[in-house]
Structures are given as C-alpha cells and as structure tokens.
Amino acid sequence: MTKNKILILFFLILPNYSFACNKEDFLTFVSAEKNKCIALQAIGEIKKNKKNLIIFLHGDLSSGAKPPGKKGYWKLGNDLLSESVNFFFLARPGYTLDSGRKSYGSYKETRKNKTNYKWEKLELVAKAAQNLKEYYNANNLIMIGHSGGAYTLATINGRIPKLIDKTILISCPCEFEMWKKMKGERVYKMKTSPHKNIDKISKDSQTIIIVGKNDKNTFPVLSINYHEMLVKRDLKSDLFVIEGKHSSGSLINASKIIKKFID
Known about the structure:
The structure is a single chain. By secondary structure, the chain is α/β, with parallel strands linked by helices. Mean pLDDT is 91; it is low at 1-18. It is 31% helix and 19% strand. The chain has one domain: Rossmann fold (3-Layer(aba) Sandwich).
C-alpha cells in the first residue's frame, strides 16, 4: 500500500475532529461546521448516556436581550430537569448567550427575517444538535423552540427527517406570509417557512404545538393551521391553546404539558 493510500485510510477512520471548531467541549460550545462554533448553556447535571437530550432554542431577540433570560426560558428549563435529561440552551447563529458566549454568525443578520431564517443558518442548528446527540449518546433528541426558535425547529424537522424525535413548538410563526400579513408588515415569501416544509417530516416524528390564546405576535391561528396541515398528512401532532400571551414566561402551564411527552 502506498504512503498516500495509507494516509487517506488513516483520516477516514479517525473521528471527525478536523471539522470541529476550536472551542468545542460539548458543554459551552459545539461545532456546527469547521470553525463554526455554536454557544451552549447547560443546566442540571450533564453526563453521557442519559436517555433524553433536550435542546432549547430562543426566539428572535432585540439587542438588549440575551438568552436564556431569567424569567421565562430559565424557569421552563428547570421545570423539565430530571435524572434522564441532559438540558442545553443553544444560542442561534449570530446571538450571544447571557453568559457572554457567542455563536458563529453576524448579529446584524438576525435583525431581518430574510437573513435570520436562511436555510444556511437553520442548518447550523441541526448540525450542532446532531453532534450533541452523538456525543452524549442520547436515545431521544427533544428540541424545544420559542417563536423564531420554533420556526427554526419546524423547518429542520421538515428538511432533515428523523433527526428530532420530538419537536416542541411554542408560539410558532409557522406560516410566514400569513404571519407577516397579520402583523401589518410587508409580505414576502420565505422558502424556509415551516408550512412549506412539511412533506418530508417522518411519520415517526412527534410535534407538540403550544400557543397562548392571547398571543398578539405569533397569533394562535398560525399554530392551529400548522397543526391541521400535519394532521391532514397523518403526521403525529398535538395542539394546546392555553392561557397566556407570546412570551414563554406568560405560558405558565407549558412545562406541565411538555413533561407529559418526556418519558
């Protein structure tokens, strides 16, 4: 065997460390692609071989707010902790956690839906989640998203079937054009809109949709319509329209609902 062939074989059997970002430790950062680190914040005891890996994605945040946030996201996360759960908050591309850790990407691009909801951004979240699942050897990947985070997850679930076992969408703008119209904003098309990315969702995947009945941002009808689209395709979907507004902190019964789907 020639020297070149030996080298090629050597790199094929090595773990994919050469593609990791230089900060990757699977606790504070995880790699999405080479040199593209995604910031993490863990709560609870983290160790390998726990049954469930829960990853939480925040919504679209202003310059003055950083996830996870002490009122809504933190509380929901703590409510879901158990001996069978590893729990991580994940900073979407371009965002910085309240700990100061920043995910790869430009914050400026998060200010516009056209750049914030590009598939290239959403796909980085999927790759980071896959790397975490493999590293911690989890049986189930459960992903929770609020608002823009829910949009992200719904689209990933449609484009990368069988990655997420349970997709939990809270206050989801799942029908992009209708969402823009209802808000009185300029309407334009987005290929990543969740309602356009349903056909490839796995029959084994389960979607849980939660929305506040008084949500004046991502209106309940958006969640209702998306749920009905899933059901018409014989996909597993459960819808809960509950007391509360748009913020996760106002949806006080959300964690009780989610717990029912975590075994």
